[in-house]
Hints:
2 copies of one chain form a homodimer. By secondary structure, the first copy, chain A, is an alpha/beta fold. Chain A folds into 2 domains: 8-54, no CATH class; 61-171, NAD(P)-binding Rossmann-like Domain (Rossmann fold). Chain A contains 7 helices and 9 strands. Chain A has helices at 11-18, 22-30, 44-54, 70-76, 114-120, 132-144, 171-183, and strands spanning 8-9, 42-43, 61-66, 86-93, 102-103, 106-110, 125-128, 149-152, 165-168. In chain A, strand 5 and strand 6 (106-110) form a beta hairpin. In chain A, helix 1 (11-18) packs across helix 2 (22-30). At the A-B interface, helix 4, strand 8 and helix 7 of A face helix 4, strand 8 and helix 7 of B. Bound molecules: nicotinamide-adenine-dinucleotide (2 copies).
Amino acid sequence: MEKEGRISCSSYEIGERADILDTKVRKDLSSFGQFGIAGRGYKIKNLKKKIEEIIGKDSIWKIAVIGVGNLGTALLKYPGFKEECCKIVLAFDSDPQKIGKIIDSVPIYDIESIEREIRKNNLKIGIIATPSEEAQNVVNRLIKSGIKALLNFAPVSLSVPDDIKIIDIDLTARLEALAYYLTHK
Amino acid sequence: MEKEGRISCSSYEIGERADILDTKVRKDLSSFGQFGIAGRGYKIKNLKKKIEEIIGKDSIWKIAVIGVGNLGTALLKYPGFKEECCKIVLAFDSDPQKIGKIIDSVPIYDIESIEREIRKNNLKIGIIATPSEEAQNVVNRLIKSGIKALLNFAPVSLSVPDDIKIIDIDLTARLEALAYYLTHK
Ligand SMILES: NC(=O)c1ccc[n+]([C@@H]2O[C@H](COP(=O)([O-])OP(=O)(O)OC[C@H]3O[C@@H](n4cnc5c(N)ncnc54)[C@H](O)[C@@H]3O)[C@@H](O)[C@H]2O)c1
Ligand SMILES: NC(=O)c1ccc[n+]([C@@H]2O[C@H](COP(=O)([O-])OP(=O)(O)OC[C@H]3O[C@@H](n4cnc5c(N)ncnc54)[C@H](O)[C@@H]3O)[C@@H](O)[C@H]2O)c1
């Protein structure tokens, strides 16, 4: 929104962009203190600064990608990550043809060294881009190495302990939402 | 949930899995008639049948993917689509080395033939997997061809008319949510 030259916005607009209810936006933001003006929304510059404080923007989170196939390669090249909170620093694969390569300055390690490399670099976030049948085993090894949060692309439901946060990227649900919109237009 | 052998579930559990508020689940489902039991949730078998009716499961939505690079290729091979509501039937690219190829039985056409092929196959849903700088131009051509709903992967904000539904897959927002979770654990 800032790039569009706007000065202020409402919780409704924030919710709309982030695909969450405006009541949830107001609830979440209000737990960090009062910085919106009732009825007139939030000053975008203040909001951006406040959000950066909240998610600890000053610290960049280092991330590992597991599985460097079509999707994993697209993730290593994704420009969207470079300026934000997070940076992909390591990748792992089981294919000897890929191990030892470097994509967009990210080295690809052998999956067998995952415990050592994750601990050495003190990583907390992992992205799963392996085939579904490998995903649970890979997640178990990541959690043993100290990973606390996961972004999962494999179309499989993964079981993790309660203190581990996992977000599934479920394309089928998104497409069904589009189909629902078209059926009820 | 059905695959896990469950018989019933609550709106809270549905919301949890789909990453939306349970109040929104109850509100959305109740607008299709009464089929939950107050206090005891929904019978999963009834719910599944009801949802299939709602999104018009009997009709499979045909989809076009624009941009067959790393991400586009992963989408053509994605097993998650095959059994559900939607099926990728066409792909488009501007690279002569890719045009005319077939990936997982999906033919890749020249982007220049996009209007003719989209109209001929009466497609309504498109997936954008091109570089950001190409996305707006591609979207304009898709809308001219009759596309009504879009799933956008390019990290750019696209402008579309009000009657067009667009869902952005914003990985940065997902990673910030994981970073937020870790900062406030
Ligand atoms: N949710 C989505 O948006 C979406 C979209 C497309 C694909 N996918 C899913 O993402 C995953 C990857 O898709 P793809 O097209 O890149 O597949 P791919 O076959 O091209 O890549 C998989 C990679 O994982 C590696 N691998 C296999 N076992 C491994 C292990 N134990 N440890 C480390 N690496 C291992 C392979 O060597 C390969 O490089 C699949 O599960 C697919 O279903 C999800
Ligand atoms: N949101 C996400 O989850 C996510 C993840 C990774 C990548 N991305 C984004 O997805 C897009 C694709 O990423 P990638 O790694 O596959 O890139 P890529 O460069 O590998 O693929 C791009 C493809 O688009 C084709 N193309 C270029 N201009 C075109 C046009 N006018 N019409 C049709 N095809 C055209 C190219 O020939 C190429 O095959 C990028 O915008 C990237 O930033 C998003």
